[in-house]
Amino acid sequence: MREEDTLDALRTEVRGWMEKNAPKDWRDASRTQDDFVATQRSWFAKLVEGGYAIPHWPADWPGGGRSLAEQKVIYEELARIDAPRLLLSFVSTYHAFATLHECASAEQKAKYLPRILKGETWCQGFSEPGAGSDLAALKTKAVRETRDGREVYVVNGQKVWSTMAQFADMCLLLVRTSNDGPKQAGITYLLMDMKTPGVSVSPINQIQGDEEFAEIFLDNVAIPVEQRVGEEGKGWAVAQATLASERGLTLMELSYRMRGALWRVAELIRKNGYENDAGVLRDFGGLVTQVDAVCAIADQFLDNRIKGIERVGDASIVKNAYSRALRAYSLLGLRLGGMDEQYLAPITFGDLNTGNWMADFMNSYAWTIAGGSEEVQRNIIAERMLELPREPKTWVLA
């Protein structure tokens, strides 16, 4: 059978399953945090059962082993039917999976990966109040000790902007175990149980009404040494696997969801009488082209990763292309919606392409920072790919 026929058959299968199983009116049913969490957990479990939750995992996992073309079909159909994006489990199924799959021991994979499919929620403890864009400047300290005959890392510090940390069972945690040498050299990667004594979480209330992010406070938290990923002091390399999954697999899904949500903008054009407005049609055509380009860039990045020819900076290109397209998408929707869309409807954990245009617009700016700011990504592209001179560390005024 030709690949086109295979993909058409898959699309028909996925569309039929989604129409029967995708939750209806889930936005109205997710206004409170408890309802949001219940909807997310129920939808994830249903997707796992249907075989559509983890198409990017290897073939020995339920629903895994899908080709990039097959993954696109699934993401497009999820967007078409306006199914909830798996906000609560995306760190688990992307970041935690990529880290464990690429860097963890066999024992760690066997322990944690099945638990993710059963609904265990993970968060990411990377950024700190003084280490966001410059992640290697992190100061959360871990000291190796022996307690009750067991080797542990005793951790003290603070993390911030940890997505859904208030609901998490486990945390991907970066700590500093040494101050010797370059700042990247003293970083160690740990897997932390969020129920460990000394861990406390405080949600961050955002301007648009979300509490998507949280702070994590660590006070003499004892983490067993066997929950370290990779060697001590070599956590920076492990962290790159985590971040690459965000700028690759995650952004591929988000890009195709955005393309699948272009109908929202088209509906505004129809509803508000812009069908014959040449300027609006030009802007919409430019947006469609921009979104298509982002999808193609994400495809190329993942293809290069699979072939082992990924370059330093490729992920940065994907990240910047997506964040710019997201801003263009939400801005055009906000503009075409007129006064009706200037008001921020009440939301809990808004997605990125919801049609709640003011919330989408506000959220779009977060993506120019999350996972590495746009400015940092440009520096990586300029210095590591184009081999331009490094940015000066200091400026001297004559």
What is the number of helical segments per DSSP (H or I, 4+ residues)?
11
Q: Give the ordered list of helices and strands.
A: HHHHHEEEEEEEEHHHHHH
Q: What's the architecture of the largest domain in CATH terms?
A: Up-down Bundle
**How large, in whole angstroms, is the Cα Rg?**
22 Å
**N/C terminus separation:** 71 Å
Low-confidence stretches: none
| Helical proportion, percent range | 40-55%
Give the overall shape, derived from the CA principal axes.
Answer: globular
CATH topology of the largest domain: Butyryl-CoA Dehydrogenase, subunit A, domain 3
Instruction: Give the tally of β-strands.
Output: 8
Strand order, main sheet: write it out: 1-4-5-8
| Strand residue content | 5-15%
Profile the largest sheet: 4 strands, mixed
Level-1 CATH class name of the largest domain: Mainly Alpha
Brief overview:
It is built from 11 helices and 8 strands. The protein is α+β, with helices and mostly antiparallel strands and 398 residues long. The protein has a 4-stranded mixed sheet.
Key phrases:
Butyryl-CoA Dehydrogenase, subunit A, domain 2; alpha+beta; 398 residues; Butyryl-CoA Dehydrogenase, subunit A, domain 3; Butyryl-Coa Dehydrogenase, subunit A, domain 1; 8 strands; four-stranded mixed beta sheet; single chain; 3 domains; globular; four-stranded antiparallel beta sheet
